[in-house]
Write a structure and sequence with these properties.
By secondary structure, the protein is an alpha+beta fold. Helix content is 26%, strand content 27%. α2 runs antiparallel to α4. GO terms for molecular function: cyclic pyranopterin monophosphate synthase activity.
Length: 175
């Protein structure tokens, strides 16, 4: 490794970035950061035909329990985030909670993921990945009856812990 242009934890513009002083991509050095309890909550929505939502809620999908399988997939996605997102740190997650809430008025399902760790970097990416994988799994399990499903409003709602402190979204995702 060429270390002459590398400053641990410092990017080319003086902050934590994924670029070294030579402008090359690298994984940010978080070695000097304190381990703290870190939490992130993310959410997203998948819209579908009312008849598709009825199939999901009745448990009569040909592929099985859509929401149960999507929950497991979301948890697995959170655990594999560093394998999917370049330069993302592998983290030992201490908790992943995934919930689905059906909204018959908008014919959609809201997926919310809460991810926690005791570590040196946050878990926002893990929460976002969990939501995306959960929604993609719903799509996969229902695409035979509804290829027009739309995933929207994926975003971080809350972040707690770490040097930058706590953060909450100003508004809830559109419904």
């Amino acid at each position: 490794m060429d270390t002459k242009n590398y400053t641990p934890g410092d990017g080319a513009n003086g902050g934590l970035t994924h670029f070294d002083t030579a402008g090359q991509a690298h994984m940010v050095d978080v070695g000097a950061k304190d381990e703290t309890h870190r939490v992130a909550v993310a959410a997203g929505r998948i819209g579908m035909k009312p008849e598709t939502l009825a199939i999901v809620l009745s448990g009569s999908a040909k592929k099985g329990d859509v929401l149960g399988i999507a929950r497991i997939a979301a948890i697995m996605g959170a655990k594999k985030t560093s394998d999917l997102i370049p330069l993302c740190h592998p983290l030992a997650l201490t908790r992943v909670k995934v919930e689905f809430q059906a909204d018959e008025t908008s014919s959609s399902i809201l997926c919310t993921a809460q991810v926690e760790t005791r570590g040196k970097t946050g878990v926002e990416m893990e929460a976002l990945t969990a939501v995306q994988v959960g929604l993609l799994t719903i799509y996969d399990m229902c695409k035979a009856v509804d290829r027009g499903m739309v995933m929207t409003d994926v975003r971080v709602l809350e972040k707690r812990g770490g040097k930058s402190g706590d953060w909450n979204a100003d508004v809830e995702p559109a419904r």
